[in-house]
Amino acid sequence: MSTSASTTLVLGGARSGKSTYAESLLSRGNALYIATGQAFDDEMAERIRLHRDRRGPRWDTVEEPLALPEALDRVLDPARPVLVDCLTLWLSNLMHAGRDVDAETARLCEVLAAAAGPVVLVSNEVGLGLVPETRLGREFRDHQGRVNQRVAQTCHRVVFVAAGLPLFLKGAP
Amino acid sequence: MSTSASTTLVLGGARSGKSTYAESLLSRGNALYIATGQAFDDEMAERIRLHRDRRGPRWDTVEEPLALPEALDRVLDPARPVLVDCLTLWLSNLMHAGRDVDAETARLCEVLAAAAGPVVLVSNEVGLGLVPETRLGREFRDHQGRVNQRVAQTCHRVVFVAAGLPLFLKGAP
Amino acid sequence: MSTSASTTLVLGGARSGKSTYAESLLSRGNALYIATGQAFDDEMAERIRLHRDRRGPRWDTVEEPLALPEALDRVLDPARPVLVDCLTLWLSNLMHAGRDVDAETARLCEVLAAAAGPVVLVSNEVGLGLVPETRLGREFRDHQGRVNQRVAQTCHRVVFVAAGLPLFLKGAP
């Protein structure tokens, strides 16, 4: 990361290598990891464990399924990069808890706009398949699209990752 | 739009910001909007209403769910840019009405190739998820892919939009 | 293809034009086609027939649903380009047969890394929709993502195709 206050959104599909790419942006120094995933079942617990194993012991981790803007605001520090993985699980938790997604997204963007240190956020692109069968599926897809658009507007850089390789949508490599 | 006869295809996922991006290409002058959506239910009516509210009163709107090539041919005018939103709903209407999608696409491309004024068309990319469960879903996905390929071949510019940000697949920005 | 030993991965959605684009990379000379598809039903048989018709008689075809690394190793020849279409059907066949996907992918990458002639491989990106409903769907999506990442890492060039148009993720055009 060349500038101390840069904010980067890393977008990609499932198993696109987006988390590994995001981690590679912060490979220097003592970064902090904010994990939004919650283990509702064994499959999810296994996915979280795999992510944790890959990161290794270098990362301090804060688990925050819902109050992401507040957690991010609390830990922001010019000397310490932060990785948020991921906005998709955060959105899923917000919807499950009946929160106002638009208001929470606005709050997150306020915190990002004021960030003094580097922040990298990971999010899924989920709108490139057929229309989901269920209304909940369509609502999730729509919210995810809006969250991505708003965070992308706020961030200095936006990168789309496919097969582990980056395409820059905004900002220089 | 730098040239009067340019045709542009704007591709993207659901809630990718593709319509807003397409509208931004035509923000000068007295553009005409061809809407292909039909309100079969309340959810669809709400989506159409949201699109209309965002556009505001600046746009004259023609609603044409099926006879898009004919409608486009009728309104083409070097002095008036046209926005078609979107080819995905048009395709859905064609299939629902039992029309010959390949023939209609060929007719649309003929009209586009002869266009004297700027035309921007919006379409969804729907083939980047798993194989759809139903035969109808697979047929829709296949038709959409073919429509996008053919229109992309005809247009001067093709832009892929993700999180509101453009990637140029064909033509200069 | 500028160099004799180049390996290229062509990624894209369903009906994105990725096979046609991949074939265009090998349009000179006497190329060999390795087809991984198996006709389990009429719809699949029809899809295979359409692909075969488009290629025409110029291509010698080897059908190999499972032992792709071995087949590729056997046919590699500096004087003869090879097209593998596609890794997604190969993955599907591997999972159906209960094979170890990671081990097979590692073997494929070894063969690719040692290739003396040009090889183009086609694969689907399937992770850009909502989370699949079934565990099998999620496993397939995860395997596909990992296969794409590993093959992308091995190949000299990686191209993403949408609406028939290429975006270079790795390597020069």
UniProtKB/TrEMBL annotation, chains A, B, C:
It comes from the Bacteria. It is an enzyme of class 2 (transferase). The active site is at H51 (gmp-histidine intermediate). Transmembrane segments: none annotated. Its EC number is 2.7.1.156, 2.7.7.62. GO terms for biological process: cobalamin biosynthetic process. It catalyses: adenosylcob(III)inamide + GTP = adenosylcob(III)inamide phosphate + GDP + H(+); adenosylcob(III)inamide + ATP = adenosylcob(III)inamide phosphate + ADP + H(+); adenosylcob(III)inamide phosphate + GTP + H(+) = adenosylcob(III)inamide-GDP + diphosphate. CDD domains: CobU (cd00544). InterPro entries: CobU/CobP (IPR003203), P-loop_NTPase (IPR027417). Keywords: ATP-binding, Cobalamin biosynthesis, GTP-binding, Kinase, Nucleotide-binding, Nucleotidyltransferase, Transferase. GTP binds at residues 12-19, 35-37, 52-55, 63, 85. The keyword Ubl conjugation does not apply. One of its GO terms (molecular function) is ATP binding. Pathway: Cofactor biosynthesis; adenosylcobalamin biosynthesis; adenosylcobalamin from cob(II)yrinate a,c-diamide: step 6/7; Cofactor biosynthesis; adenosylcobalamin biosynthesis; adenosylcobalamin from cob(II)yrinate a,c-diamide: step 5/7. Catalyzes ATP-dependent phosphorylation of adenosylcobinamide and addition of GMP to adenosylcobinamide phosphate. Belongs to the CobU/CobP family. This is Bifunctional adenosylcobalamin biosynthesis protein. It comes from Magnetospirillum aberrantis SpK. The gene is cobU.
